[in-house]
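Bug #2210: token dump truncated for Oxygen sensor histidine kinase NreB?
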Amino acid sequence: MEEQQYIQREQRWNKVWALAPYGLLGPAAAVSLFDASGWQHHLITLAIAAGLGVWHWWFVVAHPQWCERRTWLMALYFAGLLATTVLLVGRSSAFQLFVPACYVLAFVTLPGWTAYIGVAATSGIWLMAPGTDVPVTLGNLATATPLAALIGWTIRVMEREAIRRREAHSRLVAMAAENARLHQVLVERAKAAGTAEERARMAREIHDTVAQGLTGIVTQLEAAEELSPADPVRERLGKARQLARTSLVEVRRSIESLRPGPLENARLAEAVARTAASWREQHGVPTEFTVTGTPHPAPPEAEVAVLRAAQEALSNIGRHAQAGRVDVTLSYMDGLVVLDVRDDGAGFDVEAASGFGLTALRERVGRLAGSVEIESAPGAGTALSIAIPVGEVAG
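Reproduced locally. Full output below:
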């Protein structure tokens, strides 16, 4: 927003500089009417002045981008400007009022060192005025021309400094926006880590209290059922035992939903290895699991995402791929965990794929600032790769 304001302010000032010469050309034309010349002379002079105004409007006002991109056009424009100004000054000394505008236009329209040539050429116009005292004028120009060049150089330096500051400000704004984005990612990851840690704590607490208590209740009810000789009592004990077993199953299901089972007592590499081994035994497809890099603990939410990705990929292979071989690779890189799952199965059209599992996987990984890449084609197998940035976690 601020950059747009800078640009708009710069465009307004450029417009002012482009229109400023008319502020001198108009009064000069008006003053020229008071010369003791005939009306025909005045009409021709005004026509030339109008032509100069159109010339300036076409090259500078109507096409401001030419000042920066069309050097040869600007050289043509400035040559025509000087020639017309010389003609007007020769017809009426009143147009000497317009000559200072040529100094300004030299720096507005001519690039680099050519602007100083334009300043020197503009100074020569003063010598063309009727009745000019050439020695005195040359003495004045010896002071005025360097002064005009110095002023123009100063304005250019100030303009370059303003542009440099604007660009630096834009970079700072971009860096601030990127820092804010990274801060948001870190906050979200911290929240996710805290949530995952709390879920794991709750799972442990439920396992160590409620689940263990229900297990003890089931055991006691089974013992009481065996010791009770009365059928009505045995029947009621059996119902109580069945209710306790059902509650124990629900508690264990809740524990599994709070903390992925394979990660409860294992590191990520071990959990993925067990998942791959279990899938191999279930489907009878040769499956190779490889770990590269130095394994290190990752945030819980990252480990869960990687494990779920492995489970989803293997599940899809089992249902659709008809693969003869599967390779699972878990790579630990500098601040990055990468999972690659490849198969030599039937493949599919990636662009047409819209399954819920892949969508959920992309969303889960995206929340961790990770990426999901899938390469596949009908008959060419499939390669799934997910990468999740992780920090080093002391283990």
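Output looks complete on our side. Residues 264-389 form a domain with the Heat Shock Protein 90 fold (CATH 3.30.565.10). Marking as cannot-reproduce; reopen if the truncation happens again.
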